[in-house]
Design brief:
Layout (H helix, E strand, L loop, with lengths): L2 H15 L11 H8 L3 H13 L3 E4 L3 E4 L4 H4 L12 H5 L7 E12 L2 H7 L6 E11 L2 E11 L8 H5 L2 H8 L4 E11 L3 H7 L7 E10 L4 E10 L12
Antiparallel strand pairs: 1-2, 3-4, 4-5, 5-8, 6-7, 7-8
Length: 240
């Protein structure tokens, strides 16, 4: 976890515990720098993260203030979209929930025209294809169909796919997952998904179609993730 993420998490915890109360002004930047032993840039990034999560507001010339929000909004559901750039494993970090993965397929293929278009690679380029079911405490939560260019994510192994791919990208390759463009819709499960996700035929899935970018602007993932409808809550915050 990066320093600004650690700072943001700690401040969020203090808001949750009531150490920083609704409408209360947070310490000024210089005090926060001293408290956490970090630079002003790190504090600014942490504050920006808290703003994006809808927890604080910045008032020009006055500082940062805790928003007057409900407790459940301070610690939103695990499916909070702002947390999904941490990946499935990252969403459950420090929750006590045991995350497991069932790998159905891990192969190298030539990109189809559709995949090549979404990843902006040539149709003849090689990409990883990964199909996995992700579980929380042994209960299937989602099934992922993921494509990644080998040229951008080299050296991915079966062991990495069994765990956190985003962890491999950030810790082993030293890259930073930065942003995602998503579309969401409801779909019915296929016959195969009925078995893999252990759902009934009348239970819809929430499909998230996304492309994900690194901090350097490179596109490294095209994926379709289908979440079990009655095990998933979409939570999002919009700011202007």
């Amino acid at each position: 976890m990066l320093k600004y993420e650690m700072v943001a998490r700690d401040i969020q915890s203090k808001i949750s515990r009531g150490e920083y109360r609704p409408n209360e002004q947070l310490p000024v930047m210089s005090d926060l720098c001293e408290t956490y032993g970090v630079s002003k840039i790190t504090i600014k990034k942490a504050m920006d993260m808290l703003v994006s999560r809808g927890l604080i507001i910045k008032r020009r010339g006055s500082g940062s203030f805790v928003k007057n929000i409900a407790v459940e909004e301070i610690n939103p559901p695990l499916q909070d979209m702002s947390r999904q750039l941490a990946g499935f494993t990252g969403e459950y970090l420090d929750t006590g929930v045991e995350v497991s993965t069932i790998v159905h397929e891990f192969s190298v293929i030539q990109a189809t025209p559709k995949v090549a278009g979404r990843l902006r690679v040539r149709p003849e380029d090689f990409v990883y294809y990964i199909c996995r079911t992700r579980c929380a405490d042994g209960v299937p939560q989602e099934i992922e169909y993921t494509y990644m260019p080998i040229s951008v994510v080299p050296g991915l192994s079966y062991e990495d796919v069994q765990g956190s791919i985003y962890g491999y990208i950030e810790r082993t390759l030293g890259l930073k997952v930065y942003s995602a463009h998503r579309s969401i819709r409801a779909v019915m499960p296929t016959a195969e998904e009925l078995t893999r996700l252990k759902v009934g035929r009348d239970v819809p899935l929430l499909e998230i179609d996304q492309v994900v970018y690194l901090e350097d602007g490179r596109l490294f993932e095209y994926s379709i993730c289908r979440h079990v409808g009655d095990r998933f809550t979409f939570f999002s915050i919009s700011t202007n």
